[in-house]
Amino acid sequence: MLSIHTFTFNPFSENTYVVFDETKEAIIIDPGCYSREEQKELVSFVETHQLKVKYILNTHGHIDHVLGNDFSKDKFKAPLAISKLDEATTRSVKTYAPLYGFDAYREAEPDMFLLEGDTISFGNTSWSILFLPGHSAGHIGFYDEKEKVIFSGDVLFEQSIGRTDLPGGNFETLIQSIHQKLFTLPDEVVVYPGHGDPTTTGEEKISNPFCAISLIK
Ligand SMILES: [Zn+2]
C-alpha cells in the first residue's frame, strides 16, 4: 500500500511527492524545495514518519523540479536518479537559475541515469520507467502497475497539458506521449502531475480539451 504526500513548493507551485510503503522506505520525486521553510517542511515530514529515503527521482530537468536536489541529497544521503536523455536539460539549470533569482541554486551530481524499461524499487514496491518526451526532450514518468498510479511530471494535467515552448519541447511529441503511453494505461490509473491536482487517465481521455481521444482526426 502506497502512502503519497504532496508538497507544493517554490514560486512555480511545483508538486514534490514523498511516497512510501509499509516498510517506510521512501522516494522523493522532484524535490522543488528552495526556501528554508520549504526545506524544513520536507525534513520534518520525513523525520516524523521515520522514513528511509531510498532514491531522489526527477521526472525532468526544469528548474522548478530540481531546486531541492542538492539539499535533499545532502540531507537524506540518498542517490539522485535522473533521465539519461534529460541530463543536458538538468545541467543547463545552473546557467539560468540566477536570472530567475535563485542565486543559491547548486547543481547536484546525478548518481544514476534512467531509461525506459528500467525499474526503481523500494520496500515492497517496484516502479517502471516510461519515456514521455514532449514537455522536455528526456521527460520520464514513474508507473506503479500494482497500485495503478503514475507520477508523470509536466506531461498531462487535469484538463490541461504541459507547455511545449521551452527548449526541447515539442507539441506533437507531447501528444504522442499522452496517447501512446499514458492513454494506453488502464482508465483508473491516478495521474500525479507536476502541478495541480491529481486526475485519472480515464477522465482525461474523455474530457481533456487538448488531448481527449475524441479529438484525434
Ligand atoms: Zn517542466
Question: Can you lay out the helices and strands and say which pair or pack?
Answer:
Elements: E1 3-9, E2 14-20, E3 25-29, H1 36-48, E4 52-57, H2 63-66, H3 69-76, E5 80-83, H4 87-91, H5 93-96, E6 112-114, E7 119-122, E8 125-131, E9 140-144, E10 149-153, E11 156-157, E12 160-161, H6 171-180, E13 190-193, E14 199-200, H7 201-207
Parallel strand pairs: 3-4, 4-5, 5-6, 10-13
Antiparallel strand pairs: 1-2, 2-3, 7-8, 8-9, 9-10, 11-12, 13-14
Residues 60, 62, 135, 154 line the site of zinc ion.
Helix content: 10-25%
Number of helices: 7
Spatial strand sequence of the major β-sheet: 1-2-3-4-5-6
Mean pLDDT across every amino acid position: 97
Dominant shape: globular
**Protein structure class:** alpha/beta
C-alpha-based Rg, rounded: 16 Å
Largest sheet: 6 strands, mixed
Residue runs with pLDDT of under 50 for 5 or more positions: none
**Number of E-state strands:** 14
Tell me what the structure shows.
This protein has seven helices and 14 strands. It is of the alpha/beta class and 217 residues long. The mean pLDDT is 97. The chain binds zinc ion.
What are the key terms here?
29% strand, 217 residues, six-stranded mixed sheet, 14 strands, alpha/beta, 7 helices, globular
